[in-house]
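Q: Structure tokens for this one, please.
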Amino acid sequence: MIFMSITKKMMLALLLATPLHMDAQTIDASLFGVGYKEALTAVEKEFGKPNATTEGNLYYSKTLYEGLVWDEVFFLFDDGKLSEVRMYKRQSRKANAVQSVKAVARVMGDKHAMTRDLEDDGTPFYKGGKSPLDVGHLFTIYASPYKGAWSTQLRFGPFAFRKQ
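A: Here is the predicted structure, written as tokens:
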């Protein structure tokens, strides 16, 4: 009986010492503004092959980012350059979306400076990171209707790069 207790304690200690989630994927500000081929190589290295590509944009479904599963992820290009990334988590109610916004903000806040603000109705949203254009934020986290339901959204950009 004592042996079982010691073994359980050792297993618990080992479990607690092991990271609970992996977040190898990154979206760095330097990725924005690069051409399609270079961006595709970098995105595939982090996220794997996209589920679909349409009009030069990349689409992923059920994607892990920062230890969270996102239902849909879009990498969007403007004039052949990566300008925006949108991530969506579908929610059954607005209250669930708001709670998820707060959870995403806690995770993103571990790596980025962030600010919190409120919509007119009191719903919180967050902005953080440093824009690749050195003006504004890298991303916004908010709750919003999406495809007939509520969603938690993490949006990087859109960033407008000068046409050359």
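A few notes: The first helix runs from residue 2 to 17. Residues 7-24 have pLDDT under 50 and may be disordered.
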